[in-house]
Structure formats: structure tokens, C-alpha cells
Amino acid sequence: MSVIEQAPPPAESDHRSWRGKSNDAEADRTTAEAGDEQSIKDLRGRSRNLLAALLRPYKKKIYWIIALLLVMNAANLAGPWLVQLGIDEGIGPITEGGDYSVIIAVGIAFAAVTLIEYGATRGDIALTGQVSQAMLFDLRQRVFAHFNRLSVSFHERFTSGRVVARMTSDMDAIRELSDNGVHDLVLSGLSVVSIAGIMLWMDVELALVALLSFPVMAILGNWFRKYSSVVYRRTRETIALVIVYFVESMSGVRAVQTYRREPRNQAIFDALNTDNQTTNVAGHRAAALFAASTKGIGNATIALVLLYGGYLVMNDETQLGVLAAFLLYLRRFFEPLQELTMFYNTLQSATAALEKLAGVLDEEPEVAEPAKPTPLPNANGELVFDEVTFSYRDDKIVLPRLDLRIPAGQTVAIVGATGAGKTTIAKLVSRFYDPVNGAVRLDGVDLRDLSETDLRRAVTMVTQENYMFDGTIGENIAFGKPTATQEEIEEAAKAIGAHTFISALPDGYDTDVRKRGGRLSAGQRQLVAFARAFLADPRVLILDEATSSLDIPSERLVQRALRTILADRTAIIIAHRLSTVEIADRVLVLDGGTVAEDGPPEVLVSGSGQYARLHEQWADSLV
Ligand SMILES: Nc1ncnc2c1ncn2[C@@H]1O[C@H](COP(=O)(O)OP(=O)(O)OP(=O)(O)O)[C@@H](O)[C@H]1O
After folding, report:
1. What residues form DSSP beta bridges with 587?
2. CA-156 nearest atom, ligand 1
3. Are residues 462 and 561 in the same domain?
4. For the chain, which has fewer Cβ within 10 Å, the N-terminal or C-terminal residue?
5. 8 Å CB contact between 398 and 418
6. pTM of the model
7. How far is residue 41's CA from residue 32's CA, in Å, rounded to a whole number?
8. Antiparallel, parallel or unpaired: β 540-544 and 570-574
9. What does the pLDDT look like over 48-66, one tens digit per residue?
10. Residue 377 falls within a domain, yes or no?
11. Cβ(156) – ligand 1 distance below 6 Å
12. Interface predicted TM-score (ipTM) of this complex, two decimals
């Protein structure tokens, strides 16, 4: 894709309508949020299955975590109860002239409980961290492998910003829950229920007074849960938009600078960032109100219990130790209650993130590998398009019905107006897409019946972008054959004519190409891409020739390289330069997805068709 194609459309007043970003947010919402009941059920089911699959290998550790949680909860509850025993059964007898044995026993028990709680807490948190990190590791591995496996058509639809958002903010939402969220959630739940039970067991009347706050807390909690779930969903959406926009802008930074879009892009980013900030601030304001209110309710309840409990103690209706235990329990009752409500958000955002990831992981490659591939370890290179019909979308047919036979070893140049379907033919031969009807065959075998390995070994496509990965020139050449030796790499570069310029670089083959080959010129990048393809040595080579005009010496170099790389293999060149067409055995002139002319270049040029006209114009331009 050229820089111009990447350039964004003219500015619009509302940042949300720009480049369908609002649609991206729509697409970023889970199906469960937007879909019908059946799809909600399906998605939840799938994310539950994903979670179960992720946790299965750590079953034993999870049992340990649960056991340790129970121990922690019991130890946590034992403290106030021991205080009650100490006051009522230990101090009482002492003041009446008894012995110290009970209070000593209570003191020892307290120390033991503290030690147990220390051990259990330490073990539990460490183990939870281990399981959580192992699960996230697996999940990241799965997502990366799956994104790699998905068809080109998927990646053409799913923006890179969304891919990044899946790997960052969604993973982070799950991490937040799995690192300590679930653990604290369970511990808080356990402690609220068991403290309520213990208080009722110790003193029903006092417990009922203490639990008077419960309905108030429930109403407040319910309000907060509802309000914050709306705010939280908005924060997830707004941060996803910030990430998506950031990645998109940075990927197209050259176009942005060429068209001096920085101020406009900054304004759009400011607006998206402000949306995110405003939503977060609203969330914090609600959280502040909720936290302060629960604390207030908690303290008011403690005061009430102190008053009423004091009255009961004075009237000998309850013991002093019970009152002290109640006051201690109440502290441990409100904090978890508050946490439980707060965790609802973490839980919700992690669930949404898991649903999105489950949705992505469930996405099947549109060009799937056959269950039983037809082996073709040594392809010859004959290509046949057999009544091929193709369209990207239902409403527009790109190739109405293509019949074409390219014998092994032939070099075919495809020319035609922009949008005629040249690249589409290349994509079908590379099996980035499958035909809607008909078949593309290599040596008589339908591409759909070939294994990925056999297909990729036989067919290589060199695209216009000549993508360079971070690393050295040598590594970039060896990309198509990672096992290549240094000699093989140099041989390939020499054959293509790239050796001279590579040797002149400061570190030769070890020179870092810098990000996306930024250190190399367009012609040099093309030569490196040719050397890469030459080393991979496919039977069928597809070349989407770069449109950028090279200077004359570079063009000569590239032409010479082309002759080397095309020799002894089937080649399809999407030709933009007529000098390239001349080295082809055959030219296809494509018009609206059909072959308008087909023949050797020297024959077509002497005719009166489209190619002859094109050639004439080109010859005139040279004069
Ligand atoms: N991923 C896609 N999704 C939808 N439509 C597409 C997609 N890629 C191409 N098209 C459409 O298919 C048609 C043929 O496109 P193709 O890229 O094959 O043309 P081309 O002849 O290679 O053009 P050019 O010389 O400009 O590269 C065009 O109308 C284009 O808009």
C-alpha cells in the first residue's frame, strides 16, 4: 500500500466519526454487550471454556490455594474470639484471685494463630501469583500463535490497534483479577459470611444491632455497582480507543508528517484522551463517595454496638469480652464488604476482556489447512486458474470467471488499470484467500488440498512493501530460510547483485537495518527482498513490483536481479514498469477482472490492442 493510500481522509469536526474509530469501539465491544441472547450465551460459554482450559494444568495448585484461603480465613476469625476468651475466661478468674493459666494459654494460642496466618498468607499469595502468571503466559502464547495463524483477510479487517489492545489492556484486565482480585474476592466473601455467622453465634441481640447496617450497605453497594459498571465499561472503551488511535497514528507516521496532520491528529488524540480522563475522574468521584460512606456507616455501626453493647454489659446480659470481640469483628466486616463491591468492576472488566480474547481465539482461519493434505514436496510449478470467481464482499465481484494456465517455468507479467484485479490474482496464488467458485491448482492439486508447509515452500510472494524486520541485513535475507549459512546468504546476495552495496556498509551483513529497513534506500530494500526470495528458492514466485520509480542505475540493478531471480521458475509479475514486462515470456492485460489480451510482449506490442497503446505511450515518455 502506498503512503497516499494510507493517508487519512479529510478532517471531520467530530473526532468520533474519524476513520470509523467509533465503529472500532463498536467492534471492540464484546458480542455479549451488543448481541442477542444466544450469542451472549455462546460467548460466555466460550470464555468459560477458555478459562477452564487455562486453569486445568494448575488444578493441584488451585486446591492448595483454596485450602490456604480457608486457613487464612479461620486464623483471621480466631483473633477476636481469642480476645473474648482472654477477657472473659482469662482476666475474669485472675481478678477473682484465680490463676494465670487460661490467659497464658490464650496468649500462646494467639501467637500460634499469628504464625499460621503468616505462613498461610505468604504461601497463598505466592502460589496465586505463580498460577496467575503461568495462566497469563499461556494466554499470551495462545493469542500470539492464533493471530499468526489467522488469515490475511482477518488482519486486513482487524486493525493493528485492536490487536495491540487485545495483548495489552485486555491482558492487563485479566491480570488484575487473577493476580489478587479473585483471591481477595473469595477471602472477602468468606470473611463477611463467617463474621456474620460468628456474631450471631456469640450474641444474637448484639449481632442484629450490628447487622442493622447491612441493608443500608446493600442499597449503597447496589447503587455503586450499577453506576460504576457503566463508568467502568466507558473507561474500557475510551482507553481502547486511545490505544487504537495511538497505534494507527504511529503506524502511519510518515503519511501524517507528509500531510502535516500532526495538529489535527493531536486534536483527535486530545479529545480521545480527555474522554478517557473525564470518565475515569467520574469513576473516582463515585468510588470516593462510596468508600467514605461505607467507612461512615461502619463507624456509626461500631458506635451503636458500643452503646448498646455497653448497656447489655452493665445489665449483665452479655460479657465484656463478647463486646470487645464484636468491635474487633466489625472492623473486619466492613472492609471486605467494601472490597466486594469494588471488585465487581475488576471482575466485570476481566470478564469482558476474556470474552473478547475468547472471541478472537475462536476465530477460524478463513483459509484453513486441509485435514488430509495432498503431499507435494517437490512442486514443478504449473499453475491453473480453473473457472475462478472471486469477490472480497458479496456486493462486488472482482474476478468474474478466470481461466488461465501458466506452464511451469513461464514468466508472466500482468498489466492493467488500477483496481483491475492484478494483486487479487497474486493473493489467490499465495492462498491468502480462497476462490468463491472454481479452483486454483498447482501441478494439478487444488491449493486448498495442500499443506501449509508444501504451499509456502512452493510459492513465495514478494510484496511492494518489501518488509524489513528489526535486525541485521543477513538476518533479513535469511528470513525465508532460517537455517541458511553465512555463505548461502552471501551467495544469494551476490546472485541478486546486492553484495556490493551490503559490503560497503559499516558492518557488512551484520549492519542493523533499523526499524523497517529505514537505513536502506527503496532500491536496496527491493534487492534485499529479492535476495530473501532467491534464498527461499520457491518454484512459484509472485512479484508485486514497486511503483516507486528508481533512478536509472538502481533500475538497471533491479532489472538484472530480476532476470536472475526469475530464471528456472514460474513467475507472476504485477508489472508497473514496461521495462519489466519485456523480460516476461507472456503478458496478460487485465481489464475488470477478465483477461483482455494474452500473448508474448513482442506480439502484443505489434498489435493494436491496449498493450500496444500502453507501450506507445511509454516509448513516447522516454523520448
Ligand atoms: N481486502 C479487500 N477488501 C475489499 N475489496 C478489496 C480488497 N482488496 C482489493 N479490493 C478491491 O478489489 C478490486 C481489485 O483490487 P486489486 O488490488 O486486485 O487491484 P490491482 O489491479 O492490483 O490494483 P493496483 O494496480 O492499484 O494495485 C478493487 O476494486 C479493490 O477495491
Report:
1. 413, 599
2. 1
3. yes
4. C
5. no
6. 0.72
7. 8
8. parallel
9. 888 888 889 999 999 999 9
10. no
11. yes
12. 0.95
